[in-house]
Automatic annotation (TrEMBL):
<keyword id="KW-1133">Transmembrane helix</keyword>
<feature type="transmembrane region" description="Helical">
    <location>
        <begin position="101"/>
        <end position="125"/>
    </location>
</feature>
<protein>
    <submittedName>
        <fullName>Chloride channel protein</fullName>
    </submittedName>
</protein>
<feature type="transmembrane region" description="Helical">
    <location>
        <begin position="16"/>
        <end position="33"/>
    </location>
</feature>
<keyword id="KW-0869">Chloride channel</keyword>
<keyword id="KW-0813">Transport</keyword>
<feature type="transmembrane region" description="Helical">
    <location>
        <begin position="190"/>
        <end position="208"/>
    </location>
</feature>
<keyword id="KW-0812">Transmembrane</keyword>
<keyword id="KW-0472">Membrane</keyword>
<dbReference type="InterPro" id="IPR050368">
    <property type="entry name" value="ClC-type_chloride_channel"/>
</dbReference>
<keyword id="KW-0868">Chloride</keyword>
<feature type="transmembrane region" description="Helical">
    <location>
        <begin position="264"/>
        <end position="281"/>
    </location>
</feature>
<feature type="transmembrane region" description="Helical">
    <location>
        <begin position="383"/>
        <end position="400"/>
    </location>
</feature>
<keyword id="KW-0406">Ion transport</keyword>
<feature type="transmembrane region" description="Helical">
    <location>
        <begin position="228"/>
        <end position="252"/>
    </location>
</feature>
<dbReference type="InterPro" id="IPR001807">
    <property type="entry name" value="ClC"/>
</dbReference>
<dbReference type="GO" id="GO:0034707">
    <property type="term" value="C:chloride channel complex"/>
</dbReference>
């Protein structure tokens, strides 16, 4: 058994040195990426609050410029980046992997997200962080020249895990995401290597950025397990909405496969105008990932159903447009908004617990990765004591979502990248 497990690990010292260097570079690069993205997002919000009408100029121009350029000159930077990692780990073709993951992709992703945030795009930066992490780790294979497919795919999965860990400060979720979503076809033994390097990344990250939770410390909230049945209506609502989000997204993604420059221009302009309208009405509240808005709702500041509706359709149209950007945090913000509104109907369960469960359920319904969805929310709120109800909500949401659309959204999008690479 020891020999079998040992055979799944690299044998050369330079490989371990490269893994350490890749971990350091990933923590620093994504840390800088998160800071400049937050800066550009804050700049847009401050400006648009004073001049909301200018969103009809800034946001459409941003969408047209980024989508047009990415579509024709940097195709593999589009979207969240997670489908690219899945496609790369499922491919045995070196040329495909190098198109999907590279240091050039890292630079492009950072640049596009910076300008997208500056223009008020309703996108997340966590999916792109995962793409950046995978690209950095795979980029080191140019020096390692690994030949075993298992180790190459494990390298990509480690990078994806590292990206999520740095973005959300969620080590358990990072490892689970690497195995549950990115490396579905990896052998179980690869999980040991993934977990080991992910642990190193987490240690480096807390040394560099600190150990504060991504959202807030809700370790003091409590939940009576005898009331778990009361969560069922909440789960049904978030599951149906999350499943519909995925189904509608994939429907339009397949319908909007266009190559004509004029059609790309018109599509980008239309989506940009939709995002601009939501930014104008909300005074910039819909822009960005929704991180600030989730914090507000967790602090009992109601944003209303209009926020949920606008965020849902803004994220949907933006994601369909293939503009670089993720749906992780935007989905969490939508789930939080639903939970905040439905919490009014619960008298025996704390509002923050309802919001946590709604975030878990909605995210699980959208990405169809129940373990990742559960742990990423619980880790970012320091509420792992809610693990049992969280897992129950996630798996029920996953089941309901599967009835609406069978194939997980990232898996379906990964097939598209595999065909076009």
């Amino acid at each position: 058994m020891k020999k079998y497990i040992a055979s799944q690990f690299p044998h050369e010292l330079k490989t371990y040195i490269s893994l350490i260097l890749a971990s350091i570079l990933t923590v620093i690069t994504i840390g800088i990426f998160l800071e400049i993205s937050e800066f550009s997002h804050h700049t847009f919000k401050v400006f648009i609050v004073k001049n909301p009408a200018l969103s009809f100029i800034i946001t459409p121009i941003t969408f047209v410029s980024i989508i047009y350029f990415a579509k024709h000159f940097c195709h593999f930077v589009q979207g969240s980046g997670i489908p690219q990692l899945i496609a790369a780990t499922e491919s045995h073709n070196k040329s495909i992997r190098e198109k999907l993951l590279s240091f050039r992709i890292v630079a492009g992703k950072i640049g596009f997200i910076f300008f997208a945030m500056l223009g008020g795009a309703p996108i997340g930066i966590e999916g792109p962080s995962i793409h950046i992490g995978g690209s950095i780790f795979y980029g080191f294979n140019r020096f390692l020249k690994l030949k075993r497919t298992l180790l190459i795919h494990a390298l990509i999965a480690i990078g994806g895990s590292a990206g999520l860990i740095v973005a959300f400060n969620a080590p358990i979720a990072g490892v689970l995401f690497a195995y549950e979503e990115i490396g579905r076809k990896l052998k179980k033994q690869a999980l040991i290597l993934i977990a080991t390097v992910s642990g190193l990344v987490y240690f480096l990250n807390i040394s560099y950025h600190g150990s504060s939770p991504y959202l807030m410390d809700l370790s003091s909230v409590s939940f009576d397990l005898t009331l778990i049945w009361q969560l069922l209506p909440l789960v049904v609502v978030v599951s149906v909405l999350g499943g519909l989000f995925s189904r509608i997204t994939l429907y339009f993604v397949h319908k909007l496969i266009i190559n004509s420059k004029i059609k790309v221009f018109m599509m980008a302009l239309s989506v940009g105008m939709i995002a601009a309208l939501f930014n104008y009405v909300s005074k910039g509240q819909i822009a960005g990932s929704g991180h600030t808005e989730v914090l507000q709702m967790l602090n009992s500041q109601s944003l209303g159903l209009d926020f949920v509706a606008m965020k849902f359709f803004a994220v949907l149209t933006s994601f369909v447009s293939t503009i670089p950007g993720g749906i992780f945090m935007p989905s969490i913000s939508i789930g939080a908004g639903i939970g905040a509104e439905l919490a009014n109907f619960y008298t025996q369960i704390d509002m923050q617990v309802i919001m946590i469960m709604a975030m878990i359920g909605y995210l699980s319904a959208v990405i169809r990765a129940p373990l990742t969805s559960t742990f990423v929310i619980l880790e970012m709120t320091m509420s792992l004591h809610l693990l049992i109800p969280g897992l129950a909500v996630a798996f029920i949401a996953n089941f309901i979502s599967r009835q609406i659309y069978h194939q997980p959204i990232y898996e379906a999008l990964a097939e598209r990248f595999s065909k076009t690479a």
